[in-house]
């Protein structure tokens, strides 16, 4: 017949390493019986005294954890900051890149919209789950093996502080905003007249869309200079940026989707060829992602400026 | 005095460690788990059995206590005794305790 004390001790011992069981068994029983005896001496019934003593000792699993010095957490406070930084980097940098690449591959492989969306959702979920699980599992393992001191505790230095800029624009902001439209205009014009005998882009568009794009790109340069002179991103500037970005991207994507962007005469880009298909998908994906990124980034910056917040300078420490 | 959770957690943090000093001091005379528990409770230390018993084994593993089974009496009991090293640690902890007490009073 097993007594209540037997059951309690057996439950606790389950979670204790084999080598320590016999000793803890004896010691725990002696201590429990001491406590029961003290209660009986104080006038309690033996049954009630046993129950009282065991209840006071509490959950046997927790007791076992205390005996084993087992850690009751997955990621301890020592490595939590490193784990958190890793998670942020994984989900804001690695996950979008992996999903974007798999989506482009899917577009090339089979552009049926249902499959593309299905593949997108699937890869977000599976890649996201794998990233989180394996990174967390690694951190938990490091914690258990006690390797955190040697592996992760790179001493924090002042260089780890990210840099911030105020709402005021730095000179560095003007340069990319002007250089990109200039490069695009140059590429558009030069490919027609100098680079190759046969232009890459469809010359039929010179009577309509290519001049239109050049005008929009010149407007983007004007926008960049205007924003730089004003000294800060405002809501109006963000709205203008969004309009200009869409005025660029929508026609380009529309032209690409209709196979009107590349010159059908260009060697290798014959209508219906795989190369044409891949080039079209790359153009669509690039313009779609870049446009969304641009609109979101400028909107966020404008909003932060409006609230008087500083913005972290991209590429400075603080992400990893 | 209200024992809101914030106060309770701060008190727990403040008291953690005092049990180690107290145990090492009391066990200069050999004692077993339950006897130590009663001594500490009588002296006003708030410690529970499920914390104290594992703590004793941890201190033993650290070489601050030694243990021996006493089978002379009806119920065999494991007696713990503070080692010289344990005594030195207790001494150092008490010195630090006094220093902190003085420092707090001087604030």
UniProtKB/TrEMBL annotation, chain A:
Tell me the keywords, alphabetical order.
Membrane, Transmembrane, Transmembrane helix
* Membrane-traversing stretches: 88-108, 120-142, 174-195, 207-225, 237-256, 276-296
Designated name of the protein: Uncharacterized protein
Automatic annotation (TrEMBL), chain B:
Note the SUPFAM superfamilies from the entry.
Winged helix' DNA-binding domain
The UniProt keyword set, sorted, is: DNA-binding
- Cite the InterPro entries for this sequence: Metal_resp_DNA-bind_regulator, Tscrpt_reg_PadR_N, WH-like_DNA-bd_sf, WH_DNA-bd_sf
At the top level, the lineage of the source is: Bacteria
Q: Please state every residue range assigned to the domain named Transcription regulator PadR N-terminal.
A: 26-90
One example of the protein's molecular function in GO is: DNA binding
The protein depicted here goes by the name DNA-binding PadR family transcriptional regulator
Species classification: Bacteria, Bacillati, Actinomycetota, Actinomycetes, Micromonosporales
